[in-house]
Amino acid sequence: MSDSLTANLDFEKNIIEVEDRIKHLQQLGNNDNLNFDSEITRLQTKLERLLKSTYSKLTPWQKTQVARHPDRPHTIDYINGLITDFTMLSGDRAFADDNALIGGIGRFCGQSIVVMGQEKGHDLDTRMKHNFGMAKPEGYRKAQRLMDLADRFNLPVLTFVDTSGAFPGVDAEERGQAQAIASSIERCLNLKVPMISTVIGEGGSGGAIAIATANRILMLEHAIYSVISPEGCASILWRSPDKVKEATEALHLTAQDLRKFGIIDEIIAEPIGGAHRNHAETINHAKEVILRHLQELLSFSGEELKKKRTEKFMKMGRKFAKSE
After folding, report:
1. For residue 323, what pLDDT is reported?
2. Other C-beta atoms within 10 Å of 204: how many?
3. Pick the CATH number of 65-323 from 2.60.40.10, 3.90.226.10, 3.90.1010.10, 3.40.630.30
4. Taking the model in full, what pTM does it have?
5. Which end of the chain has a smaller Cβ tally under 10 Å, C or N?
């Protein structure tokens, strides 16, 4: 978990107060050899009730805040928790290595795979190193190189999506950001191996879909996935940052809305109070769901996987074109 970037969410004020009270009593008990077990048990019951009540009725903006929480497990946590014999692969063989997108080869439940995802970092130093999860063209060219490797050796591809979007800087545009994203999407569509993408935090714009044009798209319960950030939407449509809450409503960016629209295939349950409160449980839930989908996809041939993936996205296009 992060240290200097730990964030308290504004709607969690009562929850934080109870958590702090529990920690205080536990410390008193340990330091002074006093017994506060009954009071701690009462507070823990109250805490669980508050968490269930609060997290069962989050607004889209509150879900956005949870999705961005710095203590949520990030791509590196999923790789460490799910992938054995992991070997990091670096560089795009054209310009540089992009630390915003990490990936390599390893084993998932005994199955050899290629894995990649955006990494935001857990503290200020690692966030700077990974550019806050915003990849440049070399990051998406690295993704294409990894997908080429997967196709060559018949390895399924697992991706973990967690980015506010591709890096918008001048240097990225000069090196062909749009072309790199488009080529990455095209490479996803042409894969002849199973591809499963999991949105673990933010899924922002083309920066997300560049590695999420998959056979199966999964989302954490409190993750978000959208064509643009709420702030970007508010600045374009309302020309005011004060309209960010209205923007989250209009974008329908929650996992629940996207499942209803058929954009994603399954929602992965988070622990009570969000993924940031229990990394191990979150990662274990993800493991169970990803494994089930992978086992289903492994029964299809390469051509079938490619056809089904293309049809999946063509169907979305036709569906929403008719609704215009």
Report:
1. 58
2. 27
3. 3.90.226.10
4. 0.90
5. C
